[in-house]
Predict the structure.
Amino acid sequence: MTQLAKSREALLALAIVVMTGLIALRFPDFVTPSNLVGTFNDTSPLIILALGEMVVILTKSIDLSVAANLALCGMVAAMMNEAGLPLPLIILAAIMLGAVVGAINGLLVWKLDIPSIVVTLGTMTITRGVIFLISGGAWINDHQMSELFKGFPRMSLIGLPVMSWIAIAVVVLLGVIVGRTALGRACFAVGGNPHAAVYTGIDVGRTQFLAFTLSGALAGLTGYLWIARYAVAYVDIANGFELDVVAACVIGGISIAGGIGSVSGAVLGALFFGIIKNALPVIGISPFWQMAISGTAILIAVAVNAREGRRAGRVILRTAETRS
Amino acid sequence: MSSVSAVSEHGAAPVLSLAGISKSFPGVRALHDVGLELYPGQVTALVGENGAGKSTIVKILTGIYQPDAGTIRVDGQETRFPSAAAASLAGVTAIHQETVLFDELTVAENIYLGHAPRTRWGLIDWRAMREGAKTLLERIGSDLDPEVRLRDLGIASKHLVAIARALSIDARVVIMDEPTAALSHKEIHELYALIERLKAEGKAILFISHKFDEIFRIADRWTVFRDGQLVGAGLMRDVREAQLVRMMVGRQVDQIFPQREPTAGPPVLTVAGYNHPTEFADISFTLHRGEILGFYGLVGAGRSEVMQALFGLTKPSKGACRIGDRVVVIRSTAEAIQNGIVYVPEDRGRQGAVKGLPIFQNITLPSLAKTSRRGFLRLAEEFKLARAYTERLDLRATSLDQDVGLLSGGNQQKVVIAKWLATRPRVIILDEPTKGIDIGSKAAVHDFMAELAAEGLAVIMVSSEIP
Amino acid sequence: MTSPTVVQRQIPDRLNSPLSRALRSWEALLVLVVIAIFIINSFASPYFLDPWNLSDATYNFTEVGMIAFPMAMLIIAGEIDLSVASIIALSSTAMGYAMAQGAPVPVLVLIGIAVGLACGAFNAMLVTRMGLPSIVVTIGTMSLFRGISYIILGDQAYTGYPASFAYFGQGYIWWVFTFELLLFVLLAGAFHVLLHRTSFGRMVYAIGNNPTAALFSGIRVARVKAILFLLTGVMSGVAAVCLTSRLGSTRPSIALGWELQAVTMVVLGGTNILGGSGTIPGVVLAALVMGLVTFGFGLLNVPGIVMSIFIGLLLIGVIALPRLWSRLQARRS
C-alpha cells in the first residue's frame, strides 16, 4: 500500500495500456470487446498460476513444477471424465490432487530443508513421468471428452466465459488471503526476514508448506480448465509454461528474493504477458518468437527490479549490525 | 559471592524465574545449572563475556531453544515454552536486532504481526490495527506514522516499534539484548526514558549489555554468567564495577590499555581531502610508521566508510591517497592489499572469517600468490605460513585443518588478524576490533596492537568507545 | 579452569590423514554404488558386458558430464547456470546455419564453441556486472537462447552435416574407445587440476563459503564468477559440437532438459547445492552412476520418460536421504 508499490503497479498498468494502444493503432481489430474478452480468457490460466507462484515466491521459494502439476491434474481429470464421473467431483479431485503434489513439494522444503528450486525441478520431471505411466503415453482427444466437461469453462456468463470468471474469483480470493489473513501476512514475514519471523512465532517451514500447497491446488484447478478449454490431454501439455508463470511474477514486481510483491502486480504481469502472446499473431509475428520474448521479458524485469531495489537501499557497503 | 534471593526487597515475587537450566549442543555445554529471576518494575542486567551463555538463555526464554534440564516458572507456576508463540503468549518478548525487522512491512503490521486484530469474519482488521498502533506509539511518546514502511526508518525508530510490539502483546517480561549497540548518544537517552516508562508500567526487564555505564545507570539488579554458569546475582546498589568485572572474567583486570612510548617514524599513509557524495567529506590525515591512529566516532559518523574507501571497497569522489611518497589509486581490495593496506572488518562472521574453510586456507587466502607457484597450490608452503602466524597469536585450535566456523569468536578474530599479518602489510586498519568482546580479550587486543606498532606497523584503530 | 598457557603449543597440520578422509567420503560411497550397479547390470542383461555396448553406454554421460564439470564449480561458488541446455541449442543452431552456408568443419567447431562463449559472457555480464541473481538470469536466458533457435528454425531442422564432422560424436580413438570418452577423461583431469590444485580453485571454494569475506580478502569475486560462467558457456559449446556431430542434425528442441541432468549429476556427486563444497571426482563418479543406470534401463526397454522419473527421484533422494539419516541419528542420541 505504499507509494513505491503503487507507482510500480501503476507504471505496469500504463505500459499495458500504451502497448495495447500502439497495437490498436495498426490493428484496430485487436481492441474490439470480443477480442479483449478473448485475450483475457486466454490469459486466465496464467493469471491463476501466477497468483499461486507469487505466494510461493513471497516465502523465498520457487515452484517450477506448476506446469507439470497442471498437466498431471488435467490428465487425471480427463481420465475421470472418460470413466463417467460427475463434473463437480472431477474439478474437486483435480484441485485436491494438485494440492497433494504441492504439499509434497512443501513437505520436502519444510521437513528436509531442501532448496525449493531443487525440489521442484525434481518433482517437475517426476510428475511428467507419472503422467506417462498413468496414460501409457496416449492422448485423450476432443471426441473422448463429454460435452459438459469441455463446455463448462467456455459457457458464457454475463458476457464472459466461465473460465474468466473463475480467474476473477481466484484474484479476489488471493486478494483476501494475501491481504487479510494471518497466512498471507506470514508469507511476507517469512520471505522478508526469516529470522525475525521465527521470533514472531511464525513457523517458516510451515508457511512455505502452505504456500506450496496453495500453489499446487491452483495448478490443479488450472489443469482441468486447460484440458477442457483445449480439449486435449497428453504428457507434454503446457511444457515449459512454468517459465511463463515465473516471468509473469517477475514482470509483476514480485521479488525473487522473497517478501515483496502484490496480487495486482502478479495479475498485471500475467496480463502484460497474455497481451503480447495474443498480439503476436495479430501483428504477423511467428509464434516461434514467443519463447525468446518471454526470456527477454524476464531479463528486463529482473534488471529493472534490481535497479529499483538498489535505489531504495543504500549504495555504499555498510557493515550490518549483526551479532556474533 | 552474593546469593540469589527468592524475594525482592519489596517482597514482590519474581514474574519469571528460571532454575537449574542446562543446555548443551554437540561438543559445547552452553549453560549448566543456571538460574535467573526477573521482578516486575525492575531492570535486571545480565552480564558476562562472550560465550558465557547470554544468547542461549535469551533463546530459551523466547522459546527458540528448549532447555535440556531445569524449570521455567511464570508467577510461580511451572511452565514450558515449546515455541516462540508460546513464549509470546506467556508475555515474554525480546528486543534486539533480529526481533522485529520486516523492512517491507509497515510499522503497524510490524507491531501486530502474529496477533493482528480481526474482523468478525476472521479477517485482519487493518483499520483497527492502524489505530491500535497509533495508540501504542503515543503511549511511548512517539509520533511515528503507523503507515510508514520500516525500511524507511532509522534503528532508533525500529526500537520504538519493537517496544510498541512488546506493549501490544501485553508483555510482562521484556528482554533487551544490547539495545544501544547501534544508537546515537541522543537516542540512547531516549531509550533510557522509555525503559523508565516500562518500569513504571510494571514490566520486568532483562537488560543485556557490555557497557557498564549503562548498566549502572538503569539496572536495579545484576546477574553474572561465566562459561555457561551462574556466578552471582544481587542488587546493583550493593556492587561496584570492579567486582562485576572480576566475576565476569574470573580474574583481576587492572589496565585495559598498556602504556607505551610514542615512537613515530616517517609517514606511511597520507590521505588528503577524501570526499564521498553521502558518507564523508574532506578527510585528511597522515599515518606514520609505528603509530597507532585512533578514529573515534559513533556509528553512522562515516568512520567505517572512510576505512572501506581506503581498502578499495567504495570509491571516494574526490581526494588523493599516498603510500610513502607514491600517489596510489585504490580501486579494489586486491589493490589495497598490494599496496600494503589491510582491513580487519567490524563484522567478523560475515566479512572476516570464511567459515567452512579450514584455518590454514583462511590465512593464506590473500597470500595465495606467494604460497602458490604459477597458480598451482603448494600446501607445504601454506601450512608453513599459517603455522608461523597462528602460533604467534596463540591460536587455540585442534589442527590447522580445522574449520574456522568451529572456533570461538575470539579465535576467529585471531585467524582474521593472522591472515592479514601474513601479507606483511604496512598499514593495518582495525574496525571495532573489541566490539562485542569482553574486557579480558579487549586487553589482549590492545596489547597486541601496541606490539604491532612497536614492530613498525602503522595501525588505524576505529572505535566508538573512548578508552 | 583455563589458565593462560605460557608454552608455545604446536598446532598439528592435520588430525586425519587425507587417505582416511578419502575412505570415509561421499566419493567412496559412490565407488561402491558404481560397482554395485555394474554387477547388477551384468546379471540383469547378457548384453551388458559386451565391450561395444559399454562403449555406446558412455554416450549417456560424456556430453552431460562435460557441462557438469564447470557447473559443479559454479554451484560450489554459490551460483548456478540453468541455461546450459539452451546454449547447446543455440550453439548447434549456429553451427547448422554455418553448415548451410557451406562452412568447413573446423569453422563449424569454432562457431559452436564461440557461440557458447558468447552466451556464457552474456550470463556473466548480467550476473556479475549488473548483480542479478543467477537463478533468475539463467531461467531468462534459458528461455532466450532456445527461443532464438526457435526463431531461426521454427519446426525445421538442419541436417546433412559433412561426413568428417561426425568424428567428434561418432569417432573412435582406438578399439572401443570413442573420441568423446577421451575428451571426457581429459576434461575431467583438467577440471580436477583447476578446482583442486590451483589458487583459482581455492578462490572458488572461498567465494562459495562466504562471498563477502572473500571480497574482503582481496579476491576479485566478480572476475572469478565471470570466468566460471564463461567456462560453462564454452563447455556447453563443446558439448554442442559433440551432440550435433553424434545426432547429425539440429532441432531447436535439442538437449531439452539437460540442465536438470547436469545439476543432478553435480548434486549426486556430493556438491552442496548451496555452494561451498564439492569435488570433480564426485562428479565423474556421478556421471558413471547415471550413465550405467540409464544404460541398464535401456537394456531392459524402459522408456526414456520413465527414466526421467528416476533422475528426478535421484536428485531429490540424494539430498533428502543424508538429511533424513542425520535427523534419525540425532533423534536416537
